[in-house]
């Protein structure tokens, strides 16, 4: 039986033993198994058989042959790879050929890589860029790469921007990444969120989790038009982007909303809020990461299918809406997640790790909550998951539409800090009333402030 260990043993014996093993195989699967398990190749490796495989009828064999030729580095035959590229029809093989040529790091290959920059496949262009970037401070390379910042493909543009045009933004008096300002810690402000955010410094929030008011669905959320509603949310999340620390997350809980018809002679209107809001967020620097579906039990939602149940006539079908979206965005950054994680000390990282039993899919089955004061209250379980999955202990969690304060209470229970804004006095007063009972708001001092008091608290 052929094993990885046997292939490794033959490889180190030399004398063309691997070539003989490949030649003895009669099925493509066995050939690929050998090629995929060769690992690092010795300096005296007999590679002639790999070049012969470049003419194999199966593309996966050609791909694996090219990958192994790439491991030969400067010893590989560039001309054979170029010949294959010119006649190759499989895009994966073509991409691997460019990668293998780039890994040779030969200055004589620069002209070839320049030609690959003209390819229509953006992944081939990116492989060529990768091969050229090893030639640091090379004027010829820079002259060919810098113009690609205007390339039609966003992936290519991003790579070039990061390499040549992104500048480290060092701001004076900026707090360490894991810290925030004292005047924002465990604070609830009763005011228009846009007015409050004018006083909030850049880069002060670690996580924002919120559910915007639905368009004209409640007395507290009346807007002159749907466009005006979207533009209001754009302003809020643009400011939220400014106050969010680099590379940190925004999670927006929304769902399509139905505006009832005026009369039986008119139709109701359904607005796809999450989908219409998305372009505004991306335009203002939020990078889309994930969509999470909040799944509710059918008994908890309004029955829309009742009429169809009676007549069963096509075109009249209206399913019960048992889902909402949690749209996950990240503040655009050139830095990787590891940079964020390294901003915390070892103890914080260890204590913030998510326990076993976490959700592994993007469908979260959570029962909704109902409250006499607030008609759209967050379930605590929903808040727990978001806060645990997207923040560290000690982080500042922001909710621009504080409502009944569930985000704040949950953040506190998980050893995070919170900052909430809420315009409606009755919800602000409701949050204050919670401090009179045995509630998490009462475990550590929470400040309930007017806009003026909040401004005066800033030092």
Top-tier CATH class of the largest domain: Alpha Beta
Q: How much strand content do the residues show?
A: 5-15%
Number of strands: 11
Task: Based on the coordinates given, report the CATH architecture of the largest domain.
Answer: 3-Layer(aba) Sandwich
Number of domain modules? 2
Helical content class: 40-55%
Low-confidence stretches: none
Question: Termini separation (Å)?
Answer: 74 Å
Number of separate helices? 21
Describe the global form.
elongated
Structural class: alpha/beta
Average predicted local confidence, pLDDT: 90
Q: Kindly report the spatial arrangement of strands forming the biggest sheet.
A: 8-6-7-3-2-9-10-1-11
Question: How is the main sheet built?
Answer: 9 strands, mixed
The CATH topology name of the largest domain reads: Rossmann fold
The CATH superfamily of the largest domain turns out to be: Vaccinia Virus protein VP39
Question: What's the gyration radius in Å?
Answer: 29 Å
């Amino acid at each position: 039986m052929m094993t990885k260990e046997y292939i490794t043993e033959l490889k180190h014996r030399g004398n063309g033993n691997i070539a003989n093993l490949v030649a003895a195989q009669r099925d493509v699967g066995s050939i690929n198994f050998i090629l995929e398990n060769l690992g690092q190749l010795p300096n005296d490796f007999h590679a002639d058989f790999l070049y012969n495989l470049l003419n194999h009828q199966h593309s996966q064999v050609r791909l694996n042959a090219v990958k192994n030729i790439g491991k030969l580095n400067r010893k590989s035959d560039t001309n054979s790879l170029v010949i294959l590229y010119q006649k190759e029809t499989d895009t994966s093989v073509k991409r691997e050929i460019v990668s293998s040529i780039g890994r040779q790091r030969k200055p004589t290959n620069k002209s070839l890589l320049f030609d690959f920059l003209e390819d229509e496949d953006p992944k081939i262009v990116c492989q060529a860029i990768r091969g050229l970037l090893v030639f640091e401070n090379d004027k010829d390379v820079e002259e060919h790469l810098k113009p690609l910042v205007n390339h039609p493909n966003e992936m290519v543009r991003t790579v070039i921007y990061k390499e040549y045009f992104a500048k480290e933004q060092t701001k004076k008096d900026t707090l360490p990444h894991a810290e925030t300002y004292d005047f924002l810690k465990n604070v609830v402000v009763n005011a228009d969120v846009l007015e409050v955010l004018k006083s909030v410094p850049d880069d002060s929030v670690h996580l924002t989790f919120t559910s915007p008011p639905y368009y004209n669905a409640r007395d507290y959320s009346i807007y002159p038009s749907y466009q005006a509603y979207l533009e209001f949310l754009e302003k809020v999340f643009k400011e939220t982007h400014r106050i969010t620390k680099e590379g940190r997350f925004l999670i927006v809980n929304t769902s399509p909303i139905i505006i009832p018809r005026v009369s039986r002679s008119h139709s109701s209107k359904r607005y796809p809020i999450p989908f219409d809001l998305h372009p505004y967020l991306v335009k203002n620097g939020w990078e889309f990461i994930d969509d999470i579906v909040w799944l509710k039990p059918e008994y908890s939602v309004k029955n829309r299918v009742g009429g169809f149940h009676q007549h069963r006539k096509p075109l009249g079908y209206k399913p019960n809406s048992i889902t909402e979206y949690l749209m996950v965005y990240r503040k655009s950054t050139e830095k990787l997640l590891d940079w964020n994680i390294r901003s915390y000390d070892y103890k914080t990282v260890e204590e913030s790790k998510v326990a076993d039993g976490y959700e592994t899919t993007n469908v979260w089955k959570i029962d909704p909550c109902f409250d006499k004061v607030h008609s759209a209250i967050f379930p605590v379980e929903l808040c727990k998951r978001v806060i645990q999955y997207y923040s560290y202990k000690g982080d500042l969690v922001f909710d621009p539409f504080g409502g009944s304060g569930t985000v704040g209470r949950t953040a506190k229970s998980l050893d995070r800090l919170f900052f909430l804004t809420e315009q409606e006095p009755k919800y602000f007063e409701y949050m204050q009333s919670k401090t009179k009972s045995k509630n998490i708001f009462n475990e550590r001092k929470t400040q309930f402030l007017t806009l003026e008091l909040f401004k005066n608290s800033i030092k």
